[in-house]
Design goal:
Layout lengths: L10 H11 L8 H21 L9 H15 L3 E2 L12 E4 L2 E3 L13 E10 L2 E10 L5 H19 L7 H14 L3 E2 L5 E3 L6 E6 L16 E4 L2 E3 L5 E3 L6 E3 L5 E3 L2 E5 L4 E3 L12
Helix pairs in contact: 2-3, 4-5
The chain binds 2-amino-4-trifluoromethylsulfanyl-butyric acid and cobalt (II) ion (2 copies).
The site of 2-amino-4-trifluoromethylsulfanyl-butyric acid has 14 residues, from strand 4.
């Protein structure tokens, strides 16, 4: 989600705007959580399903079509990205120096590419949003390292989630890990509250920041953590198609995303895949 700018005015007017316009963070009921679990599992299953197809020679458009048909016909669900604010396809496919929101096209994957596939499904009105990196054939040590460190950034962020944690704690942990490896954190996009609404603006999860600052987590919150980490500088550029975000210096970029629920005791990953079971009970 693109970070929303804050608008401040002065004095009484500011108070009025703040009271009227500041949206409340939505705490999910147990009925809503049950639906979020279903939507999250379906999104995870799309990534599990597509894995064997991510091979040299396949186009990102073909990957899109396979995911689309699986979501619509097999899951009886809705691909949330299709027509979302005009996005033309059902998944995002971000290859190599593409940071996020890559539009599936005719170009074929080749050995050595790294690709993020980002899937959001709507089931019974609720959203599940998740993405992972796939390595296409043998990849460079550099690409594998960036992919691994970025996944660690996501996992470290998730491990911090529990009631009482501040949003700034999550960002600080992610930034520290990325920068310790001389990588940079993309600032313009953030994780987001999620539920009946795809991007709940009231909850923005920055992937950088200061520990101990920001909103305190409460059981029943659902949001994504989705760090975008660059091998080079953090700066990005939007392509003329209005969607594709690339690194300004053309360095490699990686992203991993999960939808999580804050529980009474910690965190539940709503989009956990089978391959992750050994790491998260
Ligand atoms: N799934 C992306 C996210 O993590 C959003 C994609 S919006 C789209 O928030 F329109 F580009 F599909
Ligand atoms: Co998201
Ligand atoms: Co996503």
């Amino acid at each position: 989600m693109r970070i929303s700018p804050k608008v401040y005015t002065i004095g009484q007017t500011w108070l009025a705007i703040r009271m009227v316009k500041l949206p409340k963070i939505h705490i999910k009921s147990s009925e809503e959580i049950a639906k979020m679990r279903v939507a999250g599992r379906l999104a995870a299953e799309v990534l599990e399903m597509i894995e064997p197809y991510v091979k040299p020679g396949i186009s990102t458009l073909e990957l899109n079509d396979i995911c689309h048909n699986y979501i619509v016909n097999h899951q009886n669900a809705i691909p949330a990205c299709l027509n979302y604010r005009g996005f033309p396809k059902s998944i995002c496919t971000s290859v190599n120096h593409v940071v996020c929101h890559g539009i599936p096209n005719e170009r074929q994957l080749k050995i050595g590419d790294v690709i993020n596939i980002d899937v959001t499904v709507i089931k019974d009105d609720y959203h599940g949003d998740t993405s992972k990196m796939f390595l296409v054939g043998e990849c460079s040590i550099m690409a594998r390292r960036l992919t691994r460190i970025t996944q660690e950034c996501l996992y470290l962020g998730i491990q911090a989630v529990k009631p009482g944690t501040k949003l700034g704690d999550i960002g600080a942990i992610i930034q520290k890990h990325a920068e310790a490896h001389h990588y940079s954190v993309v600032r313009e996009y953030c994780g987001h509250g999620i539920g009946r609404v795809f991007h709940e603006d009231a909850l923005q999860v920055l992937h950088y920041g200061t520990a101990g600052t920001g909103i305190e987590l409460v059981a029943g919150m659902t949001f994504t953590i989705e760090p975008m980490i660059n091998a080079g500088k953090r700066f990005i550029r939007l392509l003329p198609d209005g969607w594709t975000v690339v690194t300004k210096d053309h360095s490699l970029s990686a992203q991993w995303e999960h939808t999580v629920l804050v529980t009474e005791t910690g965190v539940e990953i709503l989009t956990k895949r089978k391959e992750e079971q050994p790491f998260f009970s």
